[in-house]
Amino acid sequence: MNRSATTTDRFTLHPQLASDTHPLASLPLCELRLMDDANYPWLVLVPRIADARELIDLAPDHRHALADEVDRTSRLLREVFRPYKLNVAALGNLVPQLHIHVIARFEHDPAWPAPVWGRVAARPYTPEALVERVARLRDALPG
Predict the structure, then answer these.
(1) Do the beta carbons of residue 64 and residue 54 sit within 8 Å?
(2) Is the pTM here over 0.85, yes or no?
(3) Which residue(s) pair with 42 in the sheet?
(4) What is the residue range of the signal peptide feature (predicted)?
(5) pLDDT tens, residue by residue, 55-83
């Protein structure tokens, strides 16, 4: 992957993403983060590309790398949680920094079958549950 030092060196995580998520792993292109909502197994991929707001802002090699990392993240959630469905979305209406949501959905989750946004209040992880969830996901991440 041809990563420009000017774009990756200037990358900073949007404050709202920093506030709403917990670090999980650093993938080749993206920061992989856990959404602080225990209602759903919910991961967020944030490409380390400064000023990227849309998928079309990425160079072709970065778009391909992002697709590979979405695939890897989706497979991780499927392996660990065995969801009924995976939701993958890049909305960015409130947080303009490009980020991709990958959410494991279940027929019994609080928002099913509707989208997760605005259905029920986020349920932050307890410190113990956060440690357990992060460890479980990190253990399942392929090398």
Answers:
(1) no
(2) yes
(3) 103
(4) none
(5) 999 999 999 999 999 999 999 999 999 99
d(Cα 139, Cα 116) in Å, to the nearest integer? 26
- Taking only the tens place, the pLDDT of each residue in 98-118 is 999 999 999 999 999 999 998
Domain ranges (residues) in the chain: 5-111+119-140
- Burial of 79 per CB tally in 10 Å (0-12, 13-18, 19+): exposed
- Own/partner pairs for 50-57, CB < 8 Å, 24+ apart? 50/6, 50/7, 50/8, 50/9, 50/10, 50/11, 50/12, 51/7, 51/10, 52/7, 52/97, 52/98, 53/92, 53/96, 53/97, 53/98, 54/92, 54/98, 55/90, 55/98, 57/98
Q: How many residues are present in the chain?
A: 143
Token pair 């225990």 is found at 38
- pLDDT at 45 (0 to 100): 98
C-alpha 141/C-alpha 43 separation (Å) is: 13
